[in-house]
Write a structure and sequence with these properties.
271 residues, alpha+beta, Jelly Rolls, Arc Repressor Mutant, subunit A, 3 domains, 4-stranded antiparallel sheet, 17% strand, HTH araC/xylS-type domain-containing protein, HTH_AraC, DNA-binding, sequence-specific DNA binding, PchR_regulatory_protein
Length: 271
Amino acid sequence: MQEAPQPEKFSRLHMIESKASFSLLFLLSSNIRLEANDCETKFMFRKNQYILHYSSKESTAELWTESSEALKYLQIQINYKYIFNLIDPESSKENADILENMIRNNYIFLHQRTPPYMTVEMHMILKELINYSKKGMMQRLFVEAKIIKLLILIFEQFNEKNTVHQEPEIPLAVKKFIDENYHMNIRAEDIGKLTGINQNKIRKEFKAQYQMTVKDYISELRMLKAKKMIVDQEIMIKEIAIECGYEYVQNFTRAFKKKFGMSPEKLRNGS
């Protein structure tokens, strides 16, 4: 993780790529310029864009910004042999194609030569990586698991970008985030802060796609999950309330009764 504290204009940070390695580079501040010294290639990135880059030999790059915002990026470097063993290209043509795309740097520009934007899930994973405090074996296992998840998300995003018919990116990403985190206290404002997308844009595009607000979708999903747990599982109503994102069981009971016309206890007892 690199962060330059309010640098002077045009001051630069140096990034090194090892021989036969992949670099995941996440740009976390605005208008970052990158110049690869070995091939004199220049890029201009917006905030929250990323690239997955393969370097066959050791190389260096310089990053700088003309923005008043501090220069900040996260680089994850992965050895080629690790990726080879992970993907196992000899096991199937699909796996071989994935590795070939990685080596040819096809994951830098996914669509119309535009660097891809981080998804909500990617933001969450980076936050977890930055804030993780344990050391030793636990840290290694945690980091490896998160890197593998990031790679899966990149491959999925690559496939989505190359599919003609797909749901709009912002509503789909927000829905996926809610589906996986409905038990948390989440609002459109929080999702906006994580992604750098204007919260009004999130609200507008989500409602246009799914014909309901973000808040209503969260409430609907929680109630449906709660109903299924009450019917299918023998756990306390209080535990179900917490699992569905309610701190106080009274608020959960009130919302449940409003939705289904009966209390959770009556549904469980069949009365």
